[in-house]
Amino acid sequence: MLRVNGLFKSFGGKPALHDVSFEVKRGEIHGLLGHNGAGKSTTLGIILGMVEPDRGRAHIGGVCVQEDHAGALRQVGAIFESPAFYDYLSGWENLRILAGFSGRFDEKAARDVVERVGLTKRIRSKVGSYSHGMRQRLALAQALLPEPQVLLLDEPTDGLDPEGIKWFRDFILGLRRERGMTVLFNSHLLAEVEQMCDRVTILKEGRLIHAGSLEDLRGEAPVYEVSLEPWHEARTFLELNGAQVISPGRIALPPDADPAVIVAALVGCGIRVSAFSPVRRSLEDLYLEISANPTAAATA
């Protein structure tokens, strides 16, 4: 549904993107991750036609953004950077004006969207009186008014309280479930991304270091939390037997290794084993691991 190929972009001679390519499949929720300055917003800006790439192309529904901007963006709703509204006007008047910039304002459709995002009681109030969470809901209503097939969201939960974050998560999952919506969003809240996303793309310093599912990222090697003494001797034994030391106290065994055999061998070598427990690495764990060692990440 959405594809970027070979994106390069520099600002003032400083590279922002270097050969970034990935795909978002129809009906999936896809997370775009990376530290500040990794190139996430630049990538979204190129997809939205707001930033011109030095090289490369973005396609939405098979239409090239750089060749047919209006045709490609006709399929998209977006919250990009900080949503801007007229604070002295009501939420309803804002929707009417902003929708009019790109097409006809359908009052019935607008009422339905406003109800869906939970703003019916306050839609006639001035936006200047809205909380941050209400402004985000109004921005979401604006993005959904054109009935898009693709939703692009730039840090949509930034500044929201836990209740607002959960509401957003449930809302987006509902859009995908009920309407087959395709969603691409970036976020620093990795626990939320893990609960919502089918696949993720991770950027570091403008380069792609992973694009795929979380299971692809975890790999096949089972990971264990261990407490072994003396650690230096235990580490030497583990590495000689094919284990990967992720960090002191955390190791990955070969897929065919039997942990019971490994533990028995460690004890037989005089190593004290206080803990040897399987763990399921979170997205935060995986993100930190491959950010520190991007060459170990899968990029398929």
Automatic annotation (TrEMBL):
InterPro entries: AAA+_ATPase, ABC_transporter-like_ATP-bd, ABC_transporter-like_CS, P-loop_NTPase
Domain ABC transporter positions: 2-230
Gene3D superfamilies (alphabetical): P-loop containing nucleotide triphosphate hydrolases
Sorted UniProt keywords: ATP-binding, Nucleotide-binding, Transport
One example GO MF annotation: ATP binding
Pfam families: ABC_tran
Domain of life: Bacteria
SMART domains documented for this protein: AAA (SM00382)
Signal sequence extent: none
Membership in a protein family: Belongs to the ABC transporter superfamily.
Name the record gives this protein: ABC transporter ATP-binding protein
